[in-house]
């Protein structure tokens, strides 16, 4: 049984996971280039030891990819497991209770950068595969593709997929890089929002001016920028950009009813983030607004004098970084152009406006009728004792939509993270109990999967 296998092999498994975590494979920092390569090579070794027929560290336009596979029967279906081995920077270091790259087991949790995102979760996939391979229980083929750039937007993965379409050919993709509602309320992510992101630059006079000499006679770029941004949404929380909702699919009533069944305490939600009231699009619940409806946000805004004390200046320029979370069927390229056209159309002649798209990605929906989804559902139920809820998430994983567009494959998001795991933050962690149950759930997925 898988439970016995985990218990008997847990010391070895933790040693292997810790060997990965100790490598600071931070993709955002160029000085960690050697660590990135070391982590890729360590994964190659562990995949071979787990039972892969072959494993390779392959070059890409950026950080290397790790590819491995086990072929049971060339005619059988193939599951492609995707994960990433890069991690976020650990700063601020002073907020960690233990060294971020020296994993520590404390209070039933593994504490370290990457304990969850995504070394811990990808380790769940590999140890489930190890159990199945060693006991000759696989009836389908398994491939692995691990990248080292997810935390910086996966800039090299799409081109790698296009170049190696035949190598990555599969029937379904399995990913553990998402979260559950809670340890006692397992869930499967069925949808992700897309993303469009821009920088706006507003230019007024050719230099900063004395606000006493020119104030009231010359347009202030910061004032104009704030006015432009305020026009993007109306009093009902709807985005005013013409054509923005053309491709938005209304959430089916059956799904709205499913969302309404998700346990959610709005008062606790407000208290947790320190606000007195919530805001958003009229006619939708909080859980609908932050998962399956589009949104617009200012992510940063600056200009003029922000130093200590006062400086009476009318600035030459003002800037903002803004983003839209998009829903499936909204194309981020189209939305990017629509916003730029709109801002130019409403901008006054007193300033010049430049809108620069920075990046974006498509949304994604996994049908709950997909056989692989149903196998994941049974896997969760077996391991956690409860049928998982199907939930959409408000975040974005652009590469998931890219997989569908480039490889023509649907993805099942079988994630085991918890909000309390503090990914991207100090004191990231993974409960040992979730690690164990995750391995069991993935084993059950493979045992029950039929394409």
Please tell me about this protein's structure.
With 451 residues, this protein is an alpha+beta fold. The protein contains 13 helices and 18 strands. Strands 1-2-6-3-7-17 form a 6-stranded mixed sheet, sandwiched between helices. Strand 4 and strand 5 (109-111) form a beta hairpin. Helix 1 (2-21) crosses helix 3 (119-134) and helix 3 (119-134) packs across helix 13. The longest helix has 20 residues, at 2-21. The two termini are 25 Å apart.
Note the main attributes of this structure:
single chain, 451 residues, alpha+beta, six-stranded mixed sheet, four-stranded antiparallel sheet, 13 helices, 18 strands, 33% helix, globular
Looking at the structure, what is the overall shape? globular
Work out the radius of gyration: 24 Å
Q: Strands of the largest sheet, in order across it?
A: 1-2-6-3-7-17
Biggest sheet details: 6 strands, mixed
Count helical runs.
13
Question: What does the secondary structure layout of this molecule look like, with pairings?
Answer:
Elements: H1 2-21, H2 33-50, E1 54-58, E2 65-70, E3 78-84, E4 104-106, E5 109-111, H3 119-134, E6 141-147, H4 157-163, E7 172-175, E8 187-192, E9 194-203, E10 209-210, H5 211-214, H6 221-230, H7 253-260, H8 266-273, H9 286-289, E11 295-303, E12 313-314, E13 317-326, H10 332-346, E14 352-361, E15 364-365, H11 371-384, E16 389-393, H12 398-407, E17 411-413, E18 429-431, H13 432-448
Parallel strand pairs: 3-6, 3-7, 7-17, 8-16
Antiparallel strand pairs: 1-2, 2-6, 4-5, 5-18, 8-15, 9-13, 9-14, 10-12, 11-13
Helix pairs in contact: 1-3, 2-3, 3-13, 4-12, 11-13
